[in-house]
C-alpha cells in the first residue's frame, strides 16, 4: 500500500537501488525538429537519436499503481496543514502541492481542454457527445481514467466544472491576460505562440499600468472561495529577452516611460550605454520582471488572497537568468515554465529555478508530435517522432525527470486535441500539428494514452522510489 511506503522508512526501495539514473536511458528514440527561425525554407532538421528512459528501464523499480487517493487525486498517505485551498510546501526535502484537505498532490494536467471549433470537430462532437454537458462529463471521466487530475491553461473550466455530483471536476487554472490586454491597446500584435510588442519591450513602466492591473483583477473575486481552483497565470510568454535593456534604450520617443525608466536605471547604477554587458542586461531584466510581477501580484492578491499566483509562463532566455528567478521568488507561489528545448529535463535548470527563487516549479507547456498522424507538424515547438508509441515514451522520459528532481509540483501537457489544419482562425503556432491526446474526430491516440496512464497512475509510488534511492546514494557517499 502507498501509505506504508510514505510513512515508514523507505527500505523497500533502497535494496539494491544504488545504480545511477544515467544507467537507465537504455532506449533510443529518433526525433526531428523544425527549422523555424533559421531563415531557411520551411522544413525539418535531420533525424537525431535521443537516449530515453521509461518505467520499464528503471533499475530495481517494482511498478505499483497508486492507492488511497482522495477526490482531487492527492495521496491520503500523508496529510499536512489544510487551508481549504491549494498551496505548496516542502516536506522532507521535496516540494509538493497540497490540496484543500491537506493531502500531498502532484498536478498532472492537460492544456486547452475545449470543444473544438472547426467543422470537423463539430461534426464529430454532435455524433459522440450531442451537448456540452455530456462532453464535460465524458471528457473528465476519460482524463481521470488516464490518471490526469487538472485542466491547464486555456481550458473551458466553467464547462468542465459544471458536471454535477457524479464525478469530481478536474482541478483548474485561470489564464489571465494583464499585459496582453493592456498591450493590445498600445500596439501589441499576435505572433506564433504569444503576443509581440513594439520594440520587444512590454509596457510595464507605463504609469497607467498599475491602475489597469487593479481594474483588470476585480473580475477574479468571483473565484476566491472556489476550492477547486489551483491558481492564476497572469500572462503567457512575455518577451523577457536577453537584450531587453537595449530594446528599451533604443526607443525613439524621448517621453516613452520605458525609455525613461531604462535611462534612470542606467544612471542609478553608473553604467555606460556604450559599454553594455550581459551582466548589466541580466540585472535590468530582473528589474523589469520584478516591476511586472510586483504590480500583477498585488492586484491578484488584493481580490483573491486565497489562491496561488503561478506566474506568466517563462519560456525563453529569462528562465536561465538568476536575477529573473530571484525576482519571481518574491511574488510567485510556483514558477511556471514552458519548457520545450530539452528532450530530458536538465538537472541544472531544475536545481537553479528553485535555488534562485526559493520556490518550486510547474511545467506548463510541453509536447512531442507524431509523424504517423499524417499531419504537417511544422507549426509549434518541440520534436516530431515517428509513432504515437514513441510519443508515449517521450512522456515517460520527461515526467520521470521532473519527478526525480524533487522541485517540480506538476505538469500540464499541451494539449487535449490536435490542431485542425482546416481551421485557419487560430494562432500561427497551432496549425496542422499532432499535439493532442485526441485527434480532430475525438479519437484517442491509444498508444500515447496507455503510456501516459501507466506513469500517471503510479506517480506517488515513483516519488517514493526516487526519494529512497536519493537517500541511499547520499548515505553511500
From TrEMBL:
Gene3D superfamilies (UniProt xref): Glycosidases
Annotated signal sequence range: 1-19
Key words, A-Z: Signal
Matching InterPro entries: GH
Name of protein: Agarase
Amino acid at each position: 500500500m502507498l501509505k506504508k511506503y510514505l510513512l515508514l522508512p523507505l527500505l523497500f526501495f533502497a535494496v539494491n537501488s544504488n545504480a545511477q539514473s544515467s544507467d537507465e536511458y537504455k532506449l533510443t528514440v529518433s526525433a526531428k525538429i523544425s527549422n523555424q527561425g533559421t531563415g531557411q525554407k520551411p522544413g525539418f532538421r535531420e533525424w537525431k537519436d535521443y537516449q530515453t528512459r521509461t518505467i520499464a528501464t528503471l533499475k530495481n523499480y517494482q511498478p505499483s499503481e497508486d492507492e488511497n487517493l482522495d477526490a482531487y487525486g492527492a495521496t491520503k498517505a500523508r496529510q499536512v496543514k489544510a487551508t481549504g485551498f491549494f498551496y505548496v510546501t516542502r516536506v522532507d526535502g521535496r516540494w509538493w502541492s497540497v490540496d484543500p484537505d491537506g493531502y500531498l498532490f502532484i498536478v498532472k494536467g492537460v492544456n486547452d481542454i475545449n470543444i473544438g471549433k472547426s467543422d470537423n470537430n463539430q461534426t464529430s462532437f454532435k455524433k459522440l457527445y450531442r451537448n456540452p454537458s455530456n462532453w464535460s462529463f465524458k471528457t473528465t471521466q476519460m482524463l481521470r481514467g488516464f490518471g490526469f487530475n487538472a485542466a491547464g491553461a486555456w481550458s473551458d473550466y466553467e464547462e468542465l466544472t459544471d458536471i454535477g455530483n457524479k464525478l469530481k471536476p478536474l482541478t483548474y487554472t485561470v489564464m489571465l491576460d494583464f499585459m496582453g490586454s493592456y498591450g493590445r491597446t498600445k500596439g501589441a500584435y499576435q505572433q506564433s505562440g504569444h503576443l509581440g510588442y513594439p520594440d520587444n519591450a512590454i509596457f510595464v513602466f507605463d504609469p497607467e499600468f498599475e491602475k489597469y492591473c487593479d481594474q483588470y483583477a476585480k473580475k477574479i473575486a468571483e473565484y476566491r472561495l472556489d476550492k477547486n481552483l489551483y491558481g492564476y497565470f497572469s500572462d503567457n510568454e512575455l518577451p523577457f529577452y536577453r537584450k531587453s535593456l537595449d530594446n528599451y534604450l533604443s526607443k525613439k520617443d524621448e517621453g516613452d516611460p520605458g525609455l525613461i525608466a531604462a535611462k534612470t536605471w542606467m544612471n542609478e547604477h553608473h553604467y555606460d550605454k556604450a559599454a553594455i554587458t550581459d551582466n548589466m542586461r541580466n540585472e535590468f531584466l530582473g528589474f523589469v520582471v520584478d516591476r511586472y510581477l510586483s504590480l500583477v501580484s498585488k492586484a491578484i492578491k488584493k481580490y483573491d488572497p486565497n489562491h496561488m499566483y503561478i506566474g506568466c509562463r517563462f519560456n525563453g532566455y529569462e528562465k536561465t537568468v538568476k536575477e529573473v528567478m530571484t525576482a519571481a521568488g518574491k511574488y510567485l507561489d510556483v514558477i511556471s515554465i514552458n519548457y520545450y528545448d530539452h528532450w530530458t529535463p536538465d538537472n541544472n535548470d531544475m536545481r537553479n529555478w528553485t535555488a534562485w527563487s526559493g520556490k518550486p516549479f510547474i511545467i506548463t507547456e510541453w509536447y512531442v508530435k507524431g509523424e504517423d498522424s499524417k499531419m504537417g507538424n511544422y507549426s509549434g515547438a518541440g520534436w516530431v517522432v515517428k509513432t504515437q508509441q514513441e510519443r508515449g515514451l517521450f512522456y515517460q522520459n520527461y515526467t520521470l525527470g521532473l519527478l526525480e528532481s524533487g522541485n517540480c509540483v506538476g505538469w500540464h501537457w499541451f494539449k487535449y486535441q490536435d490542431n485542425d489544419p482546416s481551421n485557419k482562425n487560430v494562432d500561427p503556432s497551432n496549425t496542422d500539428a499532432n499535439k493532442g491526446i485526441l485527434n480532430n474526430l475525438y479519437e484517442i491516440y491509444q498508444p500515447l494514452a496507455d503510456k501516459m496512464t501507466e506513469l500517471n497512475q503510479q506517480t506517488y509510488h515513483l516519488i517514493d522510489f526516487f526519494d529512497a534511492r536519493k537517500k541511499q546514494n547520499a548515505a553511500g557517499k
